[in-house]
């Protein structure tokens, strides 16, 4: 599996974008975190959606509006005095728009709270095009810095309401009401387009923030704007990171179906269930194993030097 982590600045970005393409085209489990998510969006916009020159305003200040797939967040733009106080920081809520996605099942919750540290975001204006091409934005947050409190409350209420919509629609035609069943994908796309077209004041283009995407048809191609590593723990790994490891080891689908608990998660869950002493013993045994493995490696290296030949 591949992780493209967060960061700032343009150094090495084209290499990160190339890695995103490689993982996408070769069905390699992938997790993009913060900037890594944005790089994956840029790559997809360029090579799947055909947006020539697609980029982030962080890296290319001369790009035209159509190329700006990642932009400064309107409410966090810097001033002439500098960039102080312009980051979106701390715990923020993300609401899943569908139950039929990997991270929704891994988190087992409709709404989650994760820590953030960024000042750029995926441009809501291109989200519909990206999603219809298969990069589905399954989790969204809201603009917590809306100019008016009512706008903030309203946008969050709209997000929650749309997230809870069923996979069917009632429409009026020829003065009669008929129920039309439409696919879950079309319902999700409809939610995405409704949300990305919702604004709360004249300065904001939208009241929502793109938090999670999943690539349709890929074993595990996931991007998150937040930093899952901040709340991860050895006995309770963060769902995006846990999902990546499961996918890389070929165990994700069986885990999501509930037919298998991946090793060593079953051991760790048992440790949690039976008390802290068991948990400590598991960790101690793990440390002993790693130390023994390290000593064995050093011993083999010393023997190779003495014999004048390598055993590897």
Description:
With 312 residues, the protein is of the alpha/beta class. It has two domains: 2-257, Class I glutamine amidotransferase (GATase) domain (Rossmann fold); 269-307. It has ten helices and twelve strands. The strands form three sheets. It has a seven-stranded mixed β-sheet with strand order 1-2-12-11-8-5-6, sandwiched between helices. The protein has a three-stranded mixed β-sheet with strand order 3-4-7. The chain has a two-stranded antiparallel ribbon with strand order 9-10. It starts with a strand and ends in a 5-residue tail after the last helix.
Rg on CA atoms, Å:
23 Å
Overall 3D geometry? Answer: globular
Count of domains: 2
CATH architecture of the largest domain: 3-Layer(aba) Sandwich
What CATH first level of the largest domain would be assigned? Alpha Beta
The sequence of SSEs as H and E is: EHEHEEEHEEHEHEEHEEHHHH
Uncertain segments: 146-153, 166-181, 199-204
Strand order of the largest sheet: 1-2-12-11-8-5-6
Write the CATH fold name of the largest domain: Rossmann fold
What's the total count of β strands? Answer: 12
How much strand? 15-25%
Instruction: Calculate the mean pLDDT score and round it.
Output: 76
Helix percentage range: 40-55%
Protein name: CTP synthase (glutamine hydrolyzing)
EC number: 6.3.4.2
GO molecular function, one term: identical protein binding
Enzyme class: ligase
